[in-house]
């Protein structure tokens, strides 16, 4: 299903024009290679590093050649799908994660029929809970309750998401690219999720639910609302992010309950001339990189 050529495949958020504009709004200087791939530049422990995040890489040799015309720094290459980059002299660094991708349909009945039964039951519960659901572009305010709640949750659970200025930059630079869905009990917000739009794909970016929201299945109702809204507004795919069954089994079940497919990413490879002597060891890790 996913072995297809653009524009029939999901567009990775981190290769989109909207993401590039958000980076520039935050003072960063990404480079769009002539092959269309977006290259980021960072410093890790003071060392300049170049990155090709979620890159399609239809011609890895060409992309690498174009990147090397710009930088000789260590190059981290993260293909959007499993790709053997050992022929280009890259070394495996991080094995592939898995991603949940939902194919959206204009027929909401058909999309609803693909929901898992327990997910559908929670949706019915949310629909009967008397919640008020609203959606609108994300306000350009760093003190919005969803952004603050997500930041606090990141600290509490020890993970990292985009910095708030980058999320706000995405909303500010591309009109209606960041759509906020909120559920209310009376005047009180009990759940929210943020969808980022880029081409024919939308991405589930941030979600948060209060105790009252969980009791009312508010997040399930919001996700269903977002699915229908995205399908009605020209999107073919909803990227639900990584599926981590060990670290966050509950969230993984929630994502897969939508009927999403699980597809492997391409892991992370490193290309850097000082590491060339290690190339002969690449075969040890190739099986893990190419499921």
Automatic annotation (TrEMBL):
Coiled coil: none annotated. Residues 117-242 form the BioF2-like acetyltransferase domain. InterPro entries: Acyl_CoA_acyltransferase, BioF2-like_GNAT_dom, PG_Glycine_Bridge_Synth. Pfam families: Acetyltransf_6. This is GNAT family N-acetyltransferase. It comes from Pseudosulfitobacter pseudonitzschiae.
């Amino acid at each position: 299903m996913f072995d297809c050529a653009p524009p029939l495949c999901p567009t990775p958020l981190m290769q989109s024009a909207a993401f590039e504009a958000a980076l520039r709004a935050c003072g960063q200087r990404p480079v769009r290679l002539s092959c269309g791939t977006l290259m980021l530049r960072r410093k890790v422990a003071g060392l300049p590093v170049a990155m090709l995040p979620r890159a399609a890489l239809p011609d890895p040799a060409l992309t690498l050649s174009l990147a090397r015309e710009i930088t000789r720094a260590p190059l981290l290459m993260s293909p959007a799908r499993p790709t053997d980059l050992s022929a280009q002299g890259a070394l495996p660094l991080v094995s592939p994660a898995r991603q949940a991708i939902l194919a959206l349909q204009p027929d909401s009945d058909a999309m609803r029929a693909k929901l898992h039964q327990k997910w559908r039951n929670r949706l019915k519960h949310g629909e009967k809970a008397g919640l008020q659901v609203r959606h609108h572009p994300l306000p350009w305010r760093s003190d919005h309750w969803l952004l603050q709640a997500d930041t606090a949750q990141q600290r509490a659970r020890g993970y990292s998401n985009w910095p708030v200025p980058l999320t706000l930059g995405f909303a500010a630079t591309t009109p209606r690219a960041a759509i906020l869905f909120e559920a209310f009990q009376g005047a009180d917000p009990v759940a929210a999720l943020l969808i980022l739009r880029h081409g024919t794909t939308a991405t589930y970016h941030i979600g948060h639910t209060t105790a009252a929201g969980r009791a009312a299945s508010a997040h399930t109702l919001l996700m269903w609302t977002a699915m229908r809204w995205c399908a009605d507004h020209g999107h073919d795919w909803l990227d639900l992010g990584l599926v981590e069954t060990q670290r966050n089994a509950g969230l993984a079940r929630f994502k897969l309950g939508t009927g999403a497919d699980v597809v492997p990413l391409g892991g992370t490879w490193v290309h850097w001339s000082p590491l060339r002597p290690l190339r002969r060891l690449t075969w040890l890790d190739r099986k893990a990189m190419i499921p």
